[in-house]
Design a protein that fits this description.
Helix content is 50%, strand content 20%. The protein has 238 residues and is of the alpha+beta class. Helix 3 crosses helix 5. The longest helix has 42 residues. The radius of gyration is 20 Å and the shape is globular.
Length: 238
Amino acid sequence: MTMNVKANADASTEADFSLALAVSVHDMKNSMGMLMASLDEIFSYDKQTLPVELKKQLATVQYEASRINVDLVKILSVYRLQHNRLPIHIDNCFIAELLEEQVLRNQNLIDSENIHAQIVCEADLTGFLDVDLVASIINDALINACRYTKNEILVGAEAIQGYLHIYVADNGSGFPEKLLHSDRENIFEKDSLDRTHLGIYFAEKIAAMHRHNGSAGYIKLTNSEMLSGGLFSLYLPM
């Protein structure tokens, strides 16, 4: 009986901490949103009047703020997933517009790093998906590509074999070998570059929530010849 009481107390403490952490993450996410809005306002001024070095520093701050904000969104979403509190809202969406929005969100970083970013997508391509969740996945993949590419990024989408294929490719050094395996065990263990790969876990879970005619979405990581670097692919059933 004593063991059951202790077990219940431990479970209650863990639940309280989990809830407190989720609430704190939500508050931090709101604060980061305000910070990013302020940075956007700074960038809205005439860029020609800003010294080159200052523009680069501001872009770096904006990138780090965006990366933190994305991580906070992922942590909060994982919490909601584990507690079955992450609803999915499927809507018809023009994919080219969705991709363009994510590139524009990171345009300052792209420009400051002299990255050539190209969008490849038919203007009339549509898909049924949760716009906010998928946008978060694309944005995360794009931010990572900006971090590891040499100077080129390709963001695209196509309809292929009953799936909507959305991808982000770069010409960097590619994904670590352990991430190229489908099981990706111990994904939260840090690799040699100090990455925990929370974004991949998040993307896999969100992709799987998209179902149609008995098929579920999934992601795929490869080191391809598209741009000779890493290729992140999101497949959603159409």
